[in-house]
Fold this protein.
Amino acid sequence: MAEQALAEVEWPTLVFFAGLFVMVGGLVETGVIERLSHIAVEATSGRPELTTMGLLGASAGLSAIVDNIPYVATMSPIVADLVQADGGGGPSRVLWWALAFGADLGGNATAVGAAANVVVLGIAARDGTPISFWQFTKYGLIVTVVTVALVAPYLWLRYLS
């Protein structure tokens, strides 16, 4: 029974996520995240529109490449610094929404963009219906572009105008 349970574990998926979290931990420990935070604050300070749209676009793009869970874990301290630099008031909360929408929607772009994608592709392959990275990306990229394009004006109208 234990052997059957272990045989059904998605080992490649677990190793993939373990590697991502090790990478994120390394970036934090070496000070890369702190340095990126300072650069982001200096580059965008005082320009909430630029900060919001930049964060939305960068989060969508990077979440397509790096799974959205470790991406958000990595970006949270940077966004907290951006919010604090902006005074932490009501309008700065849009930055958290930009991170959430960008990471979530960007995760739809590729097979490695979200944990659910990785798991489903592993199960589909095991079931005899493999979906290639590029086949997934062909459709996922369209979904991501359309949904991010719809969210950008929402954030602008709801928080920045």
Q: What stands out?
A: The chain has a mean pLDDT of 87. The radius of gyration is 18 Å.
